[in-house]
Amino acid sequence: MCPRDFLFGAALIGALLFVGVACDDDSEGAPVPSVDVEEPPETVDSPDVDDPCVPDCDGRDCGPDGCGDVCGVCTPELECDEDLGQCFDPVVCEPDCDDRECGSDGCGGDCGACGDDEICVDGQCVGEGGASCGGTPCPALSDYAAACNDHEFCEYTYAGDDEAPWREHDVWILVPPGSFEMGAPESELGSEEEERPVRTVTFAEGFLIAKYPITVMGYEACLEEFGCEIPSVDGWDGHGWGLNTSANDRARHPQNGLRWDTAGQFCSWNGARLPSEAEWEYAAKGPVHRRFPWGDEPEPNCENETAVFSDGGAGADWSGCGEGGTWEVGSMTAGASWCGALDMAGNLWEWVEDIWHAGYEGAPVDGSARVNGGSPQRVMRGGGFVNSANTMRAAKRVFFQAAIEYADRGGRCARDL
């Protein structure tokens, strides 16, 4: 114990006064508090402390809870699949890898391994740190970064070493597997016979559709680096609109004057291809039929920012937002399709892979292009800046000679996963 001396005395008010001698710093025992009163020091914020771990056992009967403990213990005759958090009987368990390319098979094994730059998310291999949008994991795409767009679809932006300006429009959207009714019923206002018979088309696998049409910047890069052929509007100059080039300040406009083969040249240079007609329409309207890429309503007009077209009707008296020619790609954001693709109505017609047939009788139902029989013409979709509102319909289809060079002809690319 620390030695202490005590004084006792009587004060005039009869109080007992205690006086203590403080201990040395290295002695044991509690020090005597000072009689001086000082202002408390300023409060100093304590260092941040990580939030306590919250166990996650939703839907899990066993295996790790994420906090160093387990969600439960299986009975002796069962084993735990720690990935799925489920108990299984190893004697009778049947592996289940349907729609799974990695992760657990439900019986203690796995469905496959992902690549070195991939991770397994919900049974699918995605790029390391990749996203999952609308319940669909985003597969890895070399040189591209995935994120969810405003429509909750996987959208890929270029993230490679090429710093060329055209890459800002080198954006891809994952269209997941699914089915849709291709064509338009007779009940749809403005529908035509060549859009029938309506039939179910099923995509067993997803594909990527370009968010934007082929741009002037992109095509000029292909001219320089790959030798793509120079576009031309010799066939029709668009009432004097002419050819879109960077030199006339249209670098971010869609490239017009493209033939079927020159549009395909660009897509091939960029590791892609022209879409099939079914892929184009599925990307435009999705699994639930809609009259326009943005829905059954509103009717397109220049004020509601749905499409660049001739608001006053087609022909010599064309006017409105289509007057004068094309706009920069992506200008009409309200016209986005179900997956987020832009300019699928108006601005320029877009070549697809298919040969023209006057109807869908005998057409493939797996989403592939129809390239046999028919006529020498190729199919175009989407409508252009000189066309009327009815031409903006998602099911509208026309044909042209593949070698035609018009001011309202362009293209869009697709690619396999």
- Our measurement of the CA-to-CA distance between the termini, rounded to an integer number of angstroms, reads 80 Å
CATH architecture field of the largest domain: Alpha-Beta Complex
Order of neighbouring strands in the sheet with most strands: 7-8-9-12-17
> Helical percent range?
under 10%
Tell me the radius of gyration: 34 Å
CATH top level of the largest domain is Alpha Beta
Mean pLDDT: 86
Order of helices and strands: EEEEEEEEEEEEHHHEEEEE
Counted beta strands: 17
In words, what does this structure look like?
Helix content is 7%, strand content 16%. With 417 residues, the protein is mainly beta. It folds into 3 domains: 74-109, no CATH class; 114-161, no CATH class; 173-417, paralog of FGE (formylglycine-generating enzyme) (Alpha-Beta Complex), CATH 3.90.1580. Strands 7-8-9-12-17 form a 5-stranded antiparallel sheet, covered by helices on one side. Strands 15-14-13-16 form a 4-stranded mixed sheet. Strands 1-2 form a two-stranded antiparallel sheet. Residues 1-51 have low confidence and may be disordered.
